[in-house]
Structure formats: structure tokens, C-alpha cells
Amino acid sequence: GTADIGVVGLAVMGANLARNLAHHGHEVALFNRTQARTDRLVEEHGHEGRFVPSSDLAGFAASLSRPRKVIVMVKAGEATDLTLEAVAEHLDEGDVLVDGGNAHYLDTQRRERSYKRKGVHFVGAGISGGEEGALNGPSIMPGGSAEAYAVLGPLLEDISAKVEGEPCCTHIGPDGAGHFVKMVHNGIEYADMQAHRRGLRPAAHGRAAGRPHRRGLPRLERGRPRLVPHRDHRPGAAAGRRRHRAAAGRRDRRRRRAEGHRPLDRAGSPSSLGVPVNAIAEAVFARSTSGHTTVREAARGVLRGPGGGQVDDVDRLVDDVRQALWASKVVAYAQGLDHIRAASDANGWGVDVAEVARIWRGGCIIRARLLERIRRAWAEHGPATLLAVPDVADDLARAQDGWRRTVATAVGTGVPVPAFAASLAYYDTVRRDRLPAALVQGLRDFFGAHTYERTDRPGSFHTDWSGDRTEHPA
Ligand code: NBP
């Protein structure tokens, strides 16, 4: 065969990747389980480049030049396993099989081991940027062997986004490294969106009903300002609420389809690595709470909020929220990078964080200017935490008053701001010498004789709490 690369799975992501490859002059073999999708792609976009459609996998494999390179872009989970196995039956030693979907990195590790036995290079590639990115240039996070990257990398770099002429694609590391980094990317994206979505919205009293909720910074309206929570929570707009719920349900379903993996949906990621990712976790939990409609409906009419909720200085609040958004984003990045470092150490992946920051600068959804600062800091010295990078720490110090006022105002007015509050708690936790954990150790010794250590001498101790309260070495 003559095709440079093949794509299996021609729903929105696969079709757009195939078109992107064709736009860059590559000949692209096509296969989809339901042939109508293949036909539609060729009918609508066949003139954009060189496509070779096949109606079965044998024909598809025969149409590819060797070593074959195949990107599978189907629904994450069982569909991916079934499809990979079906494709692999037609591959030979040295061919490269790519899963470009949102697989969990443990699945990717398992698949990599199993295909290695057949001599097929398996690549788990995180692809970020949604359908737009897939068509015009995504950020691509491939994991797998160096040999596989040597064959596949140039093609992926070719179709990836470019920032200052550099491709937003790099070899992340072996086996599951690429999908792990993509998972953290999605976690940061959640935390960032959560912070924006829950950004406080000061609005004029009585004039807020029915106004569309704008993403991003709060909208300012003059009048007697007060804080209103997310439109969904306001009384007296039942129809609007229903419409909003239906739309949110649709959005959620769409997102669930798009996001095969959730950052925390399986034990084994942050918890087993011992990395505190509370800001990211809160963002994920906030999503499940918002989808938890039975509980929300039961609670809505029963749980009362605070009486007041006046905000005196709206301009200041808007600026405060801006500070809180920025600081929360920094904490989400700090936790995400810490998580990548821990997973890389535990798995021996050797992930280069500066490179990760570099390829996230374009194509994907989180593209922050902060990434350039991260790239520089890690290229220079690889700090233990982003929060301690001197210029970042200075900016956080400047942002903190507004960040604190935002959380305090939100708490006082009954507006949930989980991402702001969790990130602030993390900031305050890591900057202290001594933590309330000492009290918890004491309580554990009291209730369960679990013993404790002391700051002033070595060893373990137990206090006879219910007796004469003497302390003994344990
Ligand atoms: P979907 O996740 O909606 O999957 C649809 C594709 O999977 C179709 O080609 C469908 O074939 C195929 N498929 C299914 Br479903 N079950 C199959 C099976 N048992 N055997 C063979 N094929 C099967 O497509 P998508 O939204 O394009 O996403 C593709 C991947 O990319 C997913 O893993 C997703 O998580 C990931 N991703 C998506 C986005 C995004 O923004 N959408 C972003 C980044 C990553 P059919 O036509 O025969 O039904």
C-alpha cells in the first residue's frame, strides 16, 4: 500500500484528524465500523486531500505503507480494546498502533505490554483541543517507545499546533506517560473552568433574572449590587431553571462522551501516589454535585441560605475575583505538575515538565501565559513546586488579599466556590510550618492508641489518655 498513515474511528475527532493529516499532504487510509461515516467523510471532504477508504480492516491494512501507522480514535473503554484487537490482527512486527482516545493510563500500560509481545509498537497519545484542535492543530502527548516515536513523531509534529514555530507535540515518555499527562491536563482544565464558572457574579438587585450567565469574569451591573449565585440557584425562575437544567444535562452528556476518563474516576491516580490535588479534585467533585439532581432537588427547597449578601464595593469585588481566578489557576497547575512528577518518578518515565509546559502552550484548551513561566522555571532548575518559583510566589502574595476576600464574601453570601476555597486551603497549608495534622495524630492516639511522634525527640509515644495521662514510649 501507499498510504502514509491510517485512521480508524471516523466520528468527529477521527474525521478531523484524518482531514488535518490530508491537509498536510499525507495520504490517509480510512476505516470506520459503520461504513456510512467513511462514505460521508469522503463525500464531503474527499477533495481536501488524498484519502483511501476501506470497507474492511484487511483492505485498510493492505492500503498502508510499511511500517504501518494506525491511529485509533474510538470511544474510550471496551470499544477501544475491541477495535485495537481487530486492527492488530492485520498488523506485522514493527508497525505502530496508536490509541488517540482518552484512555486511562493504566489501560494504556496494559495494552502496551500486550502489543509489545506481538512486536507491535503501541502508543497511547493524549490529544487535546477538541474537534477544533483535531482539525487545525492539537496539542499531542504521545507515550510509548523511542522507536515508535522515531517513526510516528514527525507525522504528529506536522499536524500539531505550532507556537513560535515549534510543534506542540513531544515524546512524553514510555507506555502510559502520554495518557497520564493528558489526564492531568484535563484535571487542570476542569479546575480552571470550575473557577471561571463559579466566579462570583455581582449583579444589580432585582435585575438579574433571565440574564444569560456569561463565562469568565463576573458581569458588572450598577444599581444596588448584591451577589447572586449561579443563575440556576435563584428563586422564581422555574422555567428558566428547567431550560438551564436540560441544557446543562445535554452539555454534561456531551462532555461525558468527549471525556472518556475523569481525572479521579479511579482509585490509583492521585491517592496512591500520595499527591494532594485537592483543587483539581474539588473541581471534579463540583461536576458530580451539579449532576446529582436528586439530592439537589431535595435540598433546594429545604436548606436555607444566609439572609444578607450585600456587597458594598462591586468594582473591588470584580478585581478580587480576578485575583482569585489567577491564584486558583496557579494552584491547579502546581498540583497537576506535582502529580506528573510523582507519577513519572513512580513509573520511571523521565517526563520533562518543561517540555510538557511547552506543548500545552498551543492547541489545547488550557493555553495560559503562565505556561511560558512554567517552561522557563523547569528548564532552569525544576522547582519542587510551582508555588515556590520566586516571581510566582510574589504574584501570589499580591493576589492573596483579593483571593481571601472573594472566598470570605462567597462564604458569607452562600455562594459555593469550591475551586477558590480548596486552592486557598492548599496555599495556606503548604506555607505553614506546623499543621493541624498534629492534633489529628493526638486524636488518633486518644481514640485508637495509634501512637504519635514528637517534634522534639525520636521514637513513637502513647499517652494513657483515659488513665493518669502519663506518656510512654510505644
Ligand atoms: P466517540 O467517543 O463518540 O466514539 C465514536 C466512534 O467510536 C465511532 O467511530 C464509532 O463507530 C466508534 N465505536 C464505538 Br462508539 N464502539 C465501537 C466498537 N465497539 N467497535 C468499533 N468502533 C466503535 O468519538 P469522538 O468524540 O470522535 O472521540 C474519539 C476519542 O477521542 C474518544 O476516546 C474521546 O474520549 C477522545 N477525545 C475526544 C475529544 C472531543 O472533544 N470529542 C477530545 C479529545 C479526545 P461507529 O461509527 O460505527 O458507531
From TrEMBL:
<feature type="compositionally biased region" description="Basic residues">
    <location>
        <begin position="208"/>
        <end position="217"/>
    </location>
</feature>
<comment type="similarity">
    <text>Belongs to the 6-phosphogluconate dehydrogenase family.</text>
</comment>
<feature type="region of interest" description="Disordered">
    <location>
        <begin position="198"/>
        <end position="273"/>
    </location>
</feature>
<feature type="compositionally biased region" description="Basic residues">
    <location>
        <begin position="240"/>
        <end position="259"/>
    </location>
</feature>
<keyword id="KW-0311">Gluconate utilization</keyword>
<keyword id="KW-0560">Oxidoreductase</keyword>
<feature type="domain" description="6-phosphogluconate dehydrogenase C-terminal">
    <location>
        <begin position="178"/>
        <end position="466"/>
    </location>
</feature>
<protein>
    <recommendedName>
        <fullName>6-phosphogluconate dehydrogenase C-terminal domain-containing protein</fullName>
    </recommendedName>
</protein>
